[in-house]
């Protein structure tokens, strides 16, 4: 019924419908919608229904409309829709053969003719988004023969992509690309492709100046700026030398420099690491020295008030070709001599512009630039990855040394450094930087390996030579020779700090001593000769820095080396009343040199001391220890005084006005103040009630002058106190730094002479340092000193596999030392300090025991386990027994169970002697904690195989019986029970396994009654251990569940 009504309504409405497209009914139009659907079955059904509909109706306007829709559909925007329309068009043409194929082809050509499409639509389509722009660029790259300039002109209206008309559209595309990768920190491919295209079309300057500088950089700092910086880095490999110089001296670089300076705060985004990668990749892949030099100079010329924004230790320099490196070094030297700030890309922040003006700013900029250049030159030598020749290394070292200590009077060809003229004279600050950098450079050259080609020729297992040139001569020797040339050429060179006759004599004596050592070394090359040469040369170079301090040291060093060589050759023996041994003098010299703030001197002193370690005497070692321990006594007193003074200083700085009001402590100041007031009759009294209003103007002026002078004097006194405190702080810091350096010598001695009897003399001094350091609040420097001393003592002394094996003649002394250490251990209050004393005691026992006889090392026999060498077993056992009793009977003992566990593990014989004491304290310990620790010690002892071997047989059975009786008599305490049960578990298990004649029935009864004394939980360590023990007696735990709404469990044991 409803279908018929629909058909009638359709038929009734047909006559009144308009002609043309609007006459097509809904069913007909739906065919074309179905042709565009992605489902293939739907498309095929639509083609079939469309042909059937056209044949049934047989209307010309329907057929015309069909061809129009199908031809239009060939250019459908959806790729999946176009096959449907093309299939339908072919099927319709096949079904209606009377339709001419040529007419349809003409219609297609007319509809889809590219010549008739409006060019602005094509341009808008290509420049609409970064993706569409990228598509066009890819087409240009892949199909250059198809998209020729003439073709582009027909399509886009111009033969090039990058031109003045397209710059605004390109800029917008670049901005969209920048925002699209805001959080990805990458450069979109379309941007780099555009730059490459600009180079190909010879429009790079237009693109860079208009699109990047005038377009991207005009935006607020953000994604557009970061994209410009990334494009700058990515463009380096594609630009010529002229283009590199232009780009690296333009606006983009200026903005990048401002970004680097402003991004130094921790919360700012930093693009500098990305730029480092760009430059490093460019230098690594570029073989053109001119391009490498242009990039290095460009980035080095980007300065903030004279100081380049790139770091002075910029590691990209390691990729430079030798020619580029040489040219770069020459540019650095020329810029140092004649800094031309107007040729640099210099900028200042807003704050910097407000703070300095004119000449002051220029002088500061020159200093900042020179400071960076010196650091840059030094870092090039220090970087072992840089490919540099020996001539370049020496050239840099000579340049820095010359300008640090000399100046040119007149140019000479013998000294190339005299040819360079300074446009701005060197000030004291710059010379200070040069001096510091030179000695840092000396240290770098001391560790400098040979050139790469020479090192590759050496044998694989051969130790690489450091600090020498290809001919084996030390770098520092070459510099000393150069210094000698400068000192002798007074006509052309002037020293900034000329030597006095005494200092010049010391210098000449150094040269003579080095020459003598070199002659003796030729006869037989020895390590000692090289070390002493290096020490002489280093002290000689430091004469230029601190001549007054090192003249006496140089004289003592010459005398010492002469005596050492004389003794070595003649083998003379020292007699009573003669001068100290040469090694003692050498140690004093090394200690004096360590007071110098030089890392190079510190390392050379370690090397020298390492070579003379076999000759060190007790007196020399005592001198070293005195420097590390004697200073502690003074420093402890200074610490307390400094703390009080620091509190007073803080109050003075924070509350100066209140101090003036409450200056009760300074009575002298109050008296002086009253005198000034009384002299001018300005002090009011109760009798006359006078005031300052009675004074005339002249009297007031005199009063003001007197008060001003008094307060000025008081201010000077206060400032003098503060200066004195500051001086004391600096001196204290220097003392601590010196003590840390002295530890170097102690560490070297322990490492090289661990088997020497002299090492035993280090035990007590190191313990004293540790004890004092841990008992006082200290700053970071003191903590470093303490940590270093503790590491040397415990890890390198006590735990060393090499130790003194010749202590047989010092048995009494070592036993006394052991007793002293253990007595001190029990009196300490800090467990951390106690641990070091206990470790020292174990070390002394190890030295006394020595190594077991060689014939017993093959197998682990009881005789070997019982071997204790020179140990007085009864005395040592008594010492440790007293310590164990102290641990078990004191509520607050610094000793711990772990200490005795280590003792038992390392010395099983002592463990056997102390077991009775440990078993006794299972029930007699002062607290349950000590009783439980006694259980732990006994358990660890019984678990030891060595102890089991020593107590095999009747002693082992007797021990088990003692422990069994102890367990049955001990009181119940939950903390103790866990440890007791662990011991019981081990005991019962071994009694059963070894079938010992021990009656365990009393122990079983005590354990069974334990459940009535202690409330057991469902699970826990105590419960699990208890049932593990009971399992050995045949008692197991059963868990039954009730079938009720409230699930409960019942625990009971069943005796089999």
From TrEMBL:
SUPFAM superfamilies listed in its UniProt record: ARM repeat (SSF48371)
Subcellular location: Nucleus
Region span, Disordered: 626-665
Pfam families in the cross-refs: DNA_pol_phi (PF04931)
A GO CC annotation given for this chain: nucleolus
Biased composition (Acidic residues): 629-664
The UniProt record lists the keyword S-adenosyl-L-methionine: no
Residues spanning the membrane: none
GO molecular function: RNA binding; sequence-specific DNA binding; transcription corepressor activity
Similarity annotation: Belongs to the MYBBP1A family.
Protein name: MYB binding protein (P160) 1a
Gene that this polypeptide is encoded by: MYBBP1A
């Amino acid at each position: 019924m409803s279908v018929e009504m629909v058909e009638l309504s359709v038929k009734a409405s047909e006559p009144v419908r308009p002609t043309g497209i609007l006459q097509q009914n809904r069913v007909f139009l739906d065919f074309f919608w179905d042709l565009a659907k992605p489902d293939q079955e739907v498309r095929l059904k639509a083609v079939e229904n469309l042909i059937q509909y056209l044949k049934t109706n047989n209307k010309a306007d329907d057929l015309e409309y069909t061809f129009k829709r199908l031809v239009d559909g060939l250019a459908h925007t959806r790729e999946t829709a176009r096959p449907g329309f093309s299939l339908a068009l072919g099927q319709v043409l096949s079904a209606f053969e009377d339709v001419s194929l040529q007419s349809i082809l003409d219609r297609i050509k007319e509809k889809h003719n590219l010549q008739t499409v409006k060019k602005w639509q094509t341009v808008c389509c290509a420049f609409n988004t970064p993706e569409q722009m990228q598509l066009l660029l890819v087409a240009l790259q892949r199909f250059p023969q198809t998209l020729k300039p003439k073709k582009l002109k027909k399509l886009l209206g111009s033969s090039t992509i990058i031109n003045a008309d397209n710059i605004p559209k390109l800029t917008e595309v670049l901005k969209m690309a920048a925002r699209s990768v805001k959080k990805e920190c990458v450069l979109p491919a379309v941007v780099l492709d555009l730059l490459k295209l600009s180079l190909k079309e010879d429009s790079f300057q237009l693109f860079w100046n208009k699109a990047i500088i005038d377009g991207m950089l005009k935006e607020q700092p953000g994604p557009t700026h970061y994209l410009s910086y990334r494009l700058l880095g990515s463009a380096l490999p594609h630009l010529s030398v002229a283009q590199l110089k232009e780009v690296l001296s333009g606006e983009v670089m200026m903005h990048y420099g401002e970004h680097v300076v402003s991004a130094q705060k921790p919360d700012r985004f930093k693009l500098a690491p990305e730029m480092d990668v760009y430059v490093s990749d460019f230098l690594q892949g570029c073989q053109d020295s001119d391009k490498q030099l242009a990039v290095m100079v460009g980035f080095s010329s980007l300065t903030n008030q004279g100081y380049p924004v790139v770091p002075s230790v910029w590691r990209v320099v390691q990729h430079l070709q030798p020619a580029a490196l040489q040219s770069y070094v020459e540019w650095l030297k020329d810029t140092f001599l004649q800094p031309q700030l107007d040729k640099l890309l210099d900028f200042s922040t807003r704050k910097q512009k407000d703070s300095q003006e004119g000449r002051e700013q220029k002088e500061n900029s020159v200093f900042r630039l020179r400071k960076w250049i010196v650091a840059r030159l030094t870092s090039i030598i220090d970087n072992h990855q840089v490919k540099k020749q020996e001539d370049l290394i020496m050239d840099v070292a000579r340049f820095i040394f010359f300008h640090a200590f000399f100046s040119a009077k007149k140019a000479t060809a013998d000294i190339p450094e005299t040819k360079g003229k300074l446009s701005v004279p060197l000030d004291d600050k710059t010379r200070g930087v040069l001096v510091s950098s030179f000695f840092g450079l000396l240290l770098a050259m001391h560790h400098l390996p040979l050139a790469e080609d020479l090192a590759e020729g050496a044998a694989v297992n051969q130790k690489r030579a450091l600090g020498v040139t290809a001919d084996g001569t030390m770098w520092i020797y070459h510099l000393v020779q150069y210094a000698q040339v400068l000192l002798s050429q007074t006509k052309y060179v002037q020293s900034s700090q000329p030597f006095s006759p005494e200092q010049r004599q010391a210098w000449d004596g150094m040269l003579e001593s080095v020459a003598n050592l070199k002659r003796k070394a030729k006869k037989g090359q020895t390590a000692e000769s090289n070390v002493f040469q290096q020490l002489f040369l280093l002290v000689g170079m430091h004469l230029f820095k601190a001549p007054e301090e090192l003249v006496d040291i140089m004289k003592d060093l010459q005398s010492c080396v002469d005596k050492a060589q004389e003794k070595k050759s003649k083998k003379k023996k020292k007699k009573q009343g003669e001068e100290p041994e040469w090694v003692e003098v050498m140690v004093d010299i090394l200690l004096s040199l360590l007071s110098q703030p030089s890392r190079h001197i510190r390392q050379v002193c370690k090397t020298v001391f390492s070579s003379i370690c076999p000759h060190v005497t007790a007196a020399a070692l005592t001198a070293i220890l005195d420097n590390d321990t004697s200073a502690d006594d003074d420093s402890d007193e200074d610490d307390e005084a400094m703390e009080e003074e620091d509190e007073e200083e803080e109050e003075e700085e924070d509350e100066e006005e209140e101090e003036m009001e409450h200056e009760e402590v300074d009575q002298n100041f109050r008296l002086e103040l009253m005198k000034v007031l009384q002299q001018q009759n300005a002090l009011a009294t109760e009798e006359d009630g006078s005031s300052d209003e009675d004074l005339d103007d002249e009297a007031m002026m005199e009063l003001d002058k007197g008060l001003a002078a008094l307060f000025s004097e008081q201010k000077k006194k206060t400032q003098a106190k503060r200066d004195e405190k500051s001086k004391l702080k600096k001196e204290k810091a220097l003392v601590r730094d010196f003590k840390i350096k002295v530890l170097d010598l102690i560490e070297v001695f322990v490492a090289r002479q661990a088997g020497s009897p002299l090492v035993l003399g280090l035990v007590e001094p190191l313990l004293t340092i540790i004890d004092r350091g841990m008992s006082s609040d200290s700053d970071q420097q003191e903590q470093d000193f303490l940590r270093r001393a503790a590491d040397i003592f415990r890890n390198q002394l006590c735990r060393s596999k090499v130790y003194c094996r010749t202590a047989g003649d010092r048995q009494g002394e070592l036993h006394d030392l052991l007793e002293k250490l253990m007595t001190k251990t029990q009196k300490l209050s800090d467990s951390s300090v106690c641990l070091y004393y206990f470790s020292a005691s174990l070390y002394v026992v190890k030295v006394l025991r020595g190594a077991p006889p060689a014939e017993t090392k093959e197998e682990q026999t009881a005789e070997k386990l019982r071997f204790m060498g020179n140990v007085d077993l009864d005395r040592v056992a008594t010492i440790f027994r007293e310590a164990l009793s102290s641990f078990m009977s004191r509520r607050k003992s610094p000793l711990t169970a772990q200490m005795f566990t280590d003792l038992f593990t390392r010395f099983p014989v002592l463990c056997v002697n102390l077991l009775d004491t440990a078993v006794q304290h299972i029930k007699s310990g002062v607290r349950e904690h000590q009783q439980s620790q006694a259980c732990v010690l006994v358990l660890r002892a019984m678990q030891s195989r060595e102890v089991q071997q020593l107590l095999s047989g009747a002693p082992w059975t007797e021990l088990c019986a003692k422990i069994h009786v102890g367990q049955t008599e001990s009181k119940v305490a939950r903390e103790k029970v866990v440890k007791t049960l662990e011991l019981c578990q081990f005991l019962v298990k071994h009694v059963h396994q070894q079938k010992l004649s021990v009656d365990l029935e009393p122990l079983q009864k005590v354990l069974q009654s334990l459940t009535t004394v202690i409330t057991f939980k469902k699970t826990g360590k105590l419960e699990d251990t208890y049932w593990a023990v009971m399992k050995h007696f045949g008692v197991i735990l059963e868990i039954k569940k009730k079938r009720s709404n409230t699930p409960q469990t019942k625990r009971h044991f069943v005796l089999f």
